[in-house]
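Input for the complex:
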Amino acid sequence: MRMLLRLITVEVRRALDTRAPRWAFVITIGVGISLSLVVPGGASGSFESFVAAVSLGLPLLVGMLAVMVFTTDWDTRAALVTFVLTPRRSRVIVARYFAVLALTVGTLLTIHVIAALLFIAVHNEAVNTIFTIGVAAQMASMLGTTVASALTATAVASLVLRTAPALVIAVFAPFVLTIALAFTPELLVWINPYGFAGWLASPTLRWMTGSSDSTVGVGPALASFLLWTAAPLVLGWVRQLRTEPR
Amino acid sequence: MGVVLALHGVSKTYGRVQVLTDVTFTCRPGTITAFCGPNGAGKSTVLRVLAGLTSPDAGEALIDGQRLSSLAEPARSLGVVLDASAFHPGRTVRETLRLGAMTTGVSAGRAAACAELVGLEAVQRRRVGQLSLGMRQRLGIAHALLGDPGALVLDEPSNGLDPSGIVWLDELLRSFASRGGTVLVSTHQLAAVERTADRLVAISRGEVVADTTLAAVRTARTRVASDDTRLEDVLRRAGCQFRRTGSSFSVEMKPSTIGRLACEQGIALTELRADGLGLEEFLAAVSAPEYDGAVR
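Predicted:
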């Protein structure tokens, strides 16, 4: 247990001690704050709407962090060092799952704290809207969405083991598609002429578009989960155990 | 302090290519074992098997009788440097060593001490990507020493080191071995092997072709000469292999044995000296004539 805690601490630290994750964090928060100023109700409404605007990029940020936790070692050949220090690779992989979870929760809390401080600075008169049941419920919902997003990114990254393709597949493509569909809904008819998208779309895409499992059906939701999360997680586990670091 | 590194019947195949065949040798505490062989002979694969990065198809690599993966704290038994460029280029020297120390379960103070030991204390804030190859080698060695291991496995550690760095490395390895540590070092630097190694394991085309001491390599032959014509008969009767070169003989026998034989026969010798093969000659003699690309 002590060894696992040690490895989780190492993985969390490794995820944050280089420039890329720090800049990703700053940019995501910066964009969120900027959006909060232009989204209707963001800057002038309650804390609930304010934090929702600031957190818009949260799934994107957490997805990027999750991908980097699993791929950076392989991109930089540092896996050679990691697995020499800890030859039992399953320990490292398990520690990385927990590290992604810790980073997800930590990032969510950090964003809420930053948003609260900003909100107090901008809307001193509406401080009482920060600590409400509505905010707590929204935070819980956001946590579920973010953890699920991180899980998909983790699954794809652990299978692909390369940062660029994993980011494109698990993070950027669903994000871009979500934005594209929001602006041009007719696009869905074009890319989904036979209605299979519900079965094949990544859960990240579904969570981002706000569709719930009740609207897409249990079958498509399960298929999507198996395709984008369960299968890559299992195959990625095997691949990480077997791949020889170069 | 030292631990025994042992490979027993290790074989490995990649696709159809047999990379290692029944590789067996042992490195004992207090010794430096040089691991030599032509490019592509399988040296790195052997070291990767020892480090637990590559699973052999047959045989096993043991650290004090146990598989590396079964040790509770592997980095405290075995320190490994396989590639000095395998550290994240965006991390500082200090951060790289601190992460290693955390993983190994030793203090940040130990990380600082190791940086100082290898002469990197002045560049601890520098990113790994900004270091020269020689500095990265030093970082790799510091990283390997974090857990104060009983054995070191190093792959071409003198690559990129300047002459003073090579001398420093020789002294470090000798000091480590003199405290009972076990060292296995893969290298093409035969001068360094001559200076530091106690044993030599040579590999060619995935097979161990020599496992001997440096002393044995040096004293494998003796140069002997005498004005007494009976010497040739004495050597022939002793049943040893010898070759006449001018007025002297090159004999496959220890100098002390030849001296005793000559003394028993009352033959005065004008020359008697160890005439061991140079390491290069020895390795060339035991290795396959050329690399045929059979090994990755």
